[in-house]
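Reviewer 2 asked us to include a model.

Predict the structure of this chain.
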Amino acid sequence: MDERSKIQSLREELERAGYQYYVKDDPILSDYDYDHKMRRLEELEARYPDMVTPDSPTQRVGGQALESFSQVQHKVPLESLQDVFDFDELRAFDQRVRGVTPDVDYVVEPKVDGLSVALEYVNGQFVRGATRGDGRVGEDVTENLRTIRSIPLRIPGAPPSLIVRGEVFMPKKVFHSLNEERERRGEALFANPRNAAAGSLRQLDPKVAAARRLDILVFNVQWAEEVSFQTHLETLEYLEQKGFKVIPHYSCDEISKATAYVDQIGEQREQFSFDIDGAVVKVNSLSDRAKLGSTAKFPRWAAAYKYPPEIKPSRLTDIVVQVGRTGVLTPKAVLEPVRLAGTTVTGATLHNQDFISEKDIRIGDTVLVRKAGEIIPEVLSVVMDKRPEGTQPYYLPQVCPVCGAPVERDEDGAHVRCTGAECPAQLLRTLAHFASRDAMDIDGLGIAVVENLVNAGLVKTPGDLYFLKAEEVEKLERMGKRSAQNLIQAIERSKEQDLSRLIYAFGIRQVGQKAGKILAQHFHSLEALEQATMEDLVAVDDIGEITAQSILEWMRSPQSQHLMARLREAGVNTQAAEQGEDLRFAGMTFVLTGGLERFTRDQAAELIEQRGGKASGSVSKKTTYVVAGEGAGSKLRKAQELGIPVLTEEEFVKMME
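Predicted model (structure tokens):
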């Protein structure tokens, strides 16, 4: 088989495997074999770029980042549904329907708690996908939808024009995994899977959306040219035949059976891989739907039943304090077991001191508990008439319960945080940040390797990294002799990083990359920074009192002192690089937009800063130049409106030569 034929063969094999895995949940290839074949296809397509097509499995990884989303006018409006909150309202809905079409049957479906989208196909090719928006106008999120593996990019035997509607969601397992990863990085956690899905689908960079592993369930044919259907069930069967992942559904001919299915879906909600916020009862006959029509807001042929949140009492037997990977002290209520939304709840978050004080929560109280969004248990209130005598107000500890370092409140007063630089509870995040690209840039020291090192007891502080031995590392899971040697070499190279990176790597609150550079250029050595007073620090440009206070407290901490001593012992550089003479961009502000060929945006920004300039993320009257690469959008237009000079990449390179 020649290589061009092999491309087509690999595509077909990967499409089949993807369908079985993502739609049917029945893998026919191991992950290793799938990844190996995908890599082979990528190599062949790179060799024959004229063979690359939009429906190739390789095109699901996410393309060029967008400046903004364009608007899409829906060919068929994406209507919302009328909510009902009890079975009496559902029976009233049935009576209204039977007043128009007496002989009616229904389809009952779980209502996925996600983001509604329309998928458009022309001659079987996926050409566009849009959010619901206001039902008539949505946003074009085609590139992000391409990354969802359960969306077919090509449909064999499809009509000339087909538009289907579905609900994009984040599977529960993915949601929890994503939040764990965000916690390690010190990023804000997503409140629930729906918010996570919505935020992911609206990422301007499709590569970010691809990494979020979204999924979709399709539940409606909006438009099908040259194809006719009699019932909703027929459309679902058709969609399934065409390779879509279709919503679970039940059919019945009486409202009593429909309510029984609604109950059944509610009882099974924990078994679904996705979150639901209700169940939908729909008229099955499409001709009956046409007779019933729609109001100004809702179709008259469907109703969305919303499950009432379960609220139950439980006794709070204790409050335990957990220290997260960002150092935040989070109080947790220990509860007597109570059954809620299909699971047994034995604990609930109490968020922070303000939450506890506002509700006057005490150990021994009887509290009312529910599951927020059907997921996270929360305490609603205290049942005051059941409070035992002798209870005392609760206050968070003044020192970290894990390492004993002092704690302090954030500026906004919401959280109490451990100040320990070597706190074991924060170790994973501390090490991951220390080794990150913008900090010490230790290649190969990702979060999985960090976890292996910590679990093996080899590293208890960032300083321990510089005393690792290759023979210790190669014994770890998924690490061989060569990988271990490469990691040790990368750690050794990081000793020569500039002081600005080391300061940023410490993870001092309020001190980011920019502040790290400013401090390194001003004090020239870590020793000088250690001895700086409040007056010395606030005299530095862009260093305010809050940042200065954070630096002082960090430097004086015994754990920080131990860390810095350990790094000096290892021979890590603590001096700033000499400032170069090339300050040709001094006083200039650059904005980078579109895709550059020679550099990433971070690399281009660093080159600007090395020459005394500033890289900004937004265009204003203070902008000196806009560097516009391929696909430049709104920033380029704004620059043109303000009369700001625009440089091509080549012109930008010439300015640096």
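The chain has a mean pLDDT of 88. The domain at 311-386 is CATH 2.40.50.140 (OB fold (Dihydrolipoamide Acetyltransferase, E2P)). We have added this to the supplementary material.
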